[in-house]
Amino acid sequence: QLQLVESGGGLVQPGGSLRLSCAASGLTLDHIAWFRQAPGKEREGVSCFRNSGSSTVYADSVKGRFTISRDNAKKTVYLQMNSLKPDDTAVYYCAARPFPLPVLSPSAYNYWGQGTQVTVSS
After folding, report:
1. What is the pLDDT of residues 4-60, one digit of tens each?
2. CA 109, CA 54: separation in Å to the nearest integer?
3. How far is CA 86 from CA 13, 38, 77, 108, in A?
């Protein structure tokens, strides 16, 4: 069964950290990316792997603060989020695309998790 399940969201103060997890069943970890969608805004790409997972891509808004990684044995992709800001508040999704080209356009992804809420507030 092809499935993505996110976990790890929650409420955190500005400047804090969270680590999101995406457990993948039957999908290639290298083709998994993180997206987020804030209320009233379009879904945006946050990070993905490229070059068979040997390097990574980040949106400018999170570069230097977020890190994508994976554990092949656990079939899990992570998003470590540091120095969180109120603007990072959103529902975070992991998604899988059917090809290796590292794009962060939501339309390129055909499997999605249910999402996990991240709220950054004091």
Report:
1. 999 999 999 999 999 999 999 999 999 999 999 999 999 999 999 998 888 999 999
2. 20
3. 8, 11, 24, 28
